[in-house]
Amino acid sequence: MRTEPFTLLPAGWSRERRSAVSIAIVLVGLIGFLWLMAIPLSWMPEPIGSSAVQFAEGARVTVALTLVSGAIGLVLGVLAALGKLSPYRVPRHVAGFYIWVIRGTPLLVQVLFVFLALPAMVPSLQLSDFYSAVVALAFNSGAYNAEAIRGGILAVPHGQTNAARSLGLTPMQTFRYIVFPQSLRIALPPLVNNVVSLLKDSSLAYVIGVVELSNIGNRIQAATFEPIPVFITVALIYLVLTTVMTQISGAIERRLDVDQRC
């Protein structure tokens, strides 16, 4: 049984209200952590204290990478899942090829390909280091999201689809109002796990010069020759961020009643 993270909330509140308040509290906490973390870090001994602002800026870039690429990856995942389930050969093969290539190659290679090889192939697609990382992370996340969403769609009983069609709903209305909400509820746990993995995978953006958290840590340890305190600090910041993401996901799951408890 999953335990509620905010037991101080009134017990008389509905599940939806408690979950909504929980999400709001965690989001406010995340924003406060990102913007105020430099203050407690500045109290720490060298080399952490003098680099507190850099750690905070790197953490904000990491979260921005995760949110932007995660949102795009969710859209790509839905499109790829629908393409994989399409009765038509072309979208089915295109989606299958996309998922096969992305899942079968390392993310590091994909990041380098978007930043270095793609502009050489198409000069008009010269992207900054940040947006190159966003594109690579989004496409990588989309391939894994597609399989989670496809599994959720297939898990919806066909009887519900037949019942909706017998009531006069069009295929689009059936998918929008019947299939997709239930499939999203089923696919939510693996989707959230993908987002947490994406947060950690964003560290690979340092290879193309994105000044995110891992890059900041590497620069500071290279300048101070003190890798132990630096990377312990980096690891702790990642741990806080992933914990917050997990708490948000738990609140969303409770709001959607993923476990079908009521």
Describe this structure in words.
The structure is a single chain. Helix 3 (52-84) runs antiparallel to helix 4, helix 3 packs across helix 6 and helix 9 packs antiparallel against helix 10 (227-256). Helices cover 76% and strands 0% of the residues. The chain has a single domain (15-256), classed as Orthogonal Bundle (MetI-like fold). The mean pLDDT is 88. By secondary structure, it is mainly alpha-helical.
The helix-strand sequence is: HHHHHHHHHH
Strand content: under 5%
CATH fold type: MetI-like fold
Sheet having the most strands: none
Task: Reconstruct the topology from this structure.
Blueprint lengths: L14 H22 L1 H5 L9 H33 L4 H15 L3 H15 L7 H27 L2 H9 L4 H31 L11 H12 L2 H30 L6
Question: What is this entry, summarized?
Answer:
The chain is an all-alpha fold and 262 residues long.
Note the main attributes of this structure.
mainly alpha; MetI-like fold; 262 residues; 0% strand; flat
